[in-house]
Backbone:
């Protein structure tokens, strides 16, 4: 099957379906990884204010751009509004700080990162109470925030705006105000999000998968806190067997599965060899039988890794997106 290397998003812009994730990458390591990613052919780079590494990403990208507007146009740069900025009157302030750190005139996509809000504490993106719980703002005006983000497009400093970590009900509310250019959510072989993807497709919203390889670093950290066991997606027997059949890495199989599943992916690695492998998924195809085997691995909501419960108290927020029915 022929799959385009791009999603067409509103306004005629093209989003590469394989991007480069930057979550949990320390600034010094990230710069070298971005250099390797650019050399390997990545042009879609995903970041966020909450990752606290936008400046490092911007430095690496600007070295490559070298002042050439044509090179800047080759890139699709994404960043996100952090929970502490989830108030309509703070969107401009937080966006401007991201743009300044990235050192760019505009970003290609700006996302509403999460639907819940933290208290706005200047200089502290993850404010905590003495007991370790987060300082939440329980009066989050999701629609008001989205309206403020939509206005950013009018300034020319944002080409597209989108949403992340939203459930169907939240998407409906925001879509009624303005169509998101994309929806970024956790999607991988154990958490395939079929109903949510089908819903987004009905609305014409492309889906971008974060943690497409299972985000082992996060899973390991959560396992220590929760005692829950998180499987290593790269060691799933079916995935390894299919990888051997195609003489590919397990990561390549997981990423190709998502492409054929109809979503874009933003795998993250800091290893130059794996960085190159993760974008080399266009010259082979999984058979219908192999796709069926991988579809059968779906655990639904039980397969979710990033439930945000590491933000102590988040489940009490009225906009927490993963409430159990």
Residues:
């Amino acid at each position: 099957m022929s799959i385009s290397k791009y999603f067409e998003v509103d306004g005629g812009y093209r989003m590469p379906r394989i991007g480069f994730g930057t979550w949990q990458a320390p600034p010094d390591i990230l710069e070298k990884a971005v250099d390797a990613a650019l050399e390997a052919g990545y042009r879609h780079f995903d970041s966020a204010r909450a990752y606290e590494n936008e400046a490092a990403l911007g430095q690496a990208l600007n070295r490559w751009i070298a002042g050439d507007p044509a090179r800047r146009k080759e890139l699709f740069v994404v960043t996100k509004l952090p929970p502490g900025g989830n108030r309509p009157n703070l969107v401009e302030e937080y966006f401007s700080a991201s743009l300044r750190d990235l050192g760019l005139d505009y970003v290609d996509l700006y996302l509403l990162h999460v639907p819940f809000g933290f208290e706005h504490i200047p200089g502290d993106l993850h404010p905590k109470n003495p007991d370790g719980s987060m300082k939440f703002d329980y009066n989050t005006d999701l629609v008001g925030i989205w309206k403020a983000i939509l206005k950013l497009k009018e300034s020319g400093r944002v080409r597209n705006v989108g949403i992340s970590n939203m459930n169907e009900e939240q998407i409906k509310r925001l879509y009624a105000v303005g169509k998101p250019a994309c929806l970024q959510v956790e999607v991988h072989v154990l958490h395939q999000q079929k109903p949510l993807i089908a819903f987004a497709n009905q609305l014409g919203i492309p889906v971008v998968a974060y943690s497409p390889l299972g985000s082992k670093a996060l899973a390991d950290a959560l396992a220590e806190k929760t005692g829950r066991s998180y499987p290593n997606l790269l060691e799933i027997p079916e995935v390894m067997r299919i990888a051997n059949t195609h003489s590919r890495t397990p990561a390549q199989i997981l990423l190709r599965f998502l492409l054929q599943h109809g979503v874009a992916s933003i795998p993250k690695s800091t290893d130059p060899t794996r960085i190159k492998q993760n974008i080399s998924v266009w010259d082979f195809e999984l058979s219908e039988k192999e796709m069926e085997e991988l579809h059968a691995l779906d655990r639904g909501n039980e397969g979710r890794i990033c439930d945000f419960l590491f933000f102590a108290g988040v489940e009490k927020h009225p906009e927490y997106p993963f409430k159990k029915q």
